[in-house]
Amino acid sequence: MKIPTTTDIPQRYTWCLAGICYSSLAILPSFLSYAESYFNPAFLLENGTSVADLSRFERGNHQPAGVYRVDLWRNDEFIGSQDIVFESTTENTGDKSGGLMPCFNQVLLERIGLNSSAFPELAQQQNNKCINLLKAVPDATINFDFAAMRLNITIPQITLLSSAHGYIPPEEWDEGIPALLLNYNFTGNRGNGNDSYFFSELSGINIGPWRLRNNGSWNYFRGNGYHSKQWNNIGTWVQRAIIPLKSELVMGDGNTGSDIFDGVGFRGVRLYSSDNMYPDSQQGFAPTVRGIARTAAQLTIRQNGFIIYQSYVSPGAFEITDLHPTSSNGDLDSPSTSAMAISRITQFRIQQCRFYNAKGVSNLT
Q1: CA atoms within 13 A on the CB side of 341
Q2: pLDDT at 163
Q3: Has residue 245 been placed in a domain?
Q4: Rounded distance, CA 29 to CA 35, Å?
Q5: Best label site of 21, 149, 244, 254, fewest CB within 10 Å?
Q6: Could you tell me if 218 and 289 lie in one domain?
Q7: Mean pLDDT rounded to a whole number for the chain
């Protein structure tokens, strides 16, 4: 039997076969481009028993949902290590997130310093309910690095609770340990038949928030046929801090303040404000700086050529309320390191300072 060759096939059929081959090659890449990786779970077990759902591993580096301990960062500021619940999501959360989205509740929102009262929908949420931060807070961003276990959150500064530099939450204040205190001074002189001695002490007891103090002195003299000794109780008082009032309570022997007039001794009760309970930046008066940042930028405030404040602001509105008090006159210059990143700055005008338009600031009042 004769085997047909290409010379035996008519020309028109040859062109038809070639067209079919080229069409097949053209269609083949389209199937390859839409192909997805698939792992048959039957390869794991030979008895045909069903296995866990492995579909989430078909889309790259997806991790199982659960509780992970991560380093929490807010606006490039380290907040602390926190156990956070993560849920699987189909949204685009980045190549390093492992397909996970953090689940926020009211306790976690307070930890990052978000002012929930500014968002009525957040204030009405239950404490244990999962909150989508991206939908609840405009201009907020979340970036989770699963390998480094680092969660970066960017929130407009205006939506955060005001926290001045040097601020420490009252619940983290330490009352100290129970202790007995004794400070004393003893001097004496003896010669030519005369003896003189002097002793002074400041003793106390610390128990919880209470402080008991006693101040006294003892004098002794003998000579020239004269002898005397005397104990003087200068003062005894008990005091404690009233944290909600940022005040100190003193009961017993004390003195009035001497800021304006001379102090006067008294025996009774005194309640006075304590500046030591306030952050350093709030122990005085300073202007408030408000503005809107187009992108993440470093805000620097200068006075007379010296930097008096520097901070990073995230995109959106911001408000600076923790400038350190200054008693010197001068202009406050507020340029930003990112070109035109700060679109508008509004500053509070005080009598001893003048404000003017600065580089990178389009509106300054």
Answers
A1: 17
A2: 66
A3: yes
A4: 10
A5: 244
A6: no
A7: 75
Beta-carbon contacts of residue 85 (< 8 Å; ≥ 6 apart)? 66, 67, 102, 103, 130
256: Cβ contacts below 8 Å, ≥ 6 apart: 263, 264, 266, 270
Q: Is 15 inside any structural domain? A: no
Specify if 35 maps to a domain: no
pLDDT of residue 315: 78
Asked if residue 105 and residue 64 are part of one domain, the reply reads yes
Range of the domain at 108: 58-159
Which 3 state secondary structure label does DSSP give 194? strand
* Alpha-carbon dihedral sign for residues 359, 361, 363, 365: negative
Look up residue 87 and give its amino acid. Answer: E
Q: Do residue 329 and residue 292 come from a single domain?
A: yes
State the burial class of residue 53 (Cβ atoms within 10 Å of its Cβ: 0-12, 13-18, 19+): exposed
Give the confidence band of 197 by pLDDT, cuts at 50, 70, 90. very high
CA distance 37 to 54: 12
pLDDT in tens, 269-309: 999 998 888 887 777 777 778 778 777 777 888 887 788 88
Position 344 confidence tier, pLDDT thresholds 50, 70, 90: very low
Which of 261, 277, 293 is a domain's end point? 277
Provide the number of structural domains found in the chain. Answer: 3
Q: Cα–chain-centroid distance for residue 86?
A: 21
Same domain, 256 and 290: no
Of 38, 23, 130, nearest to 87 by C-alpha is 130
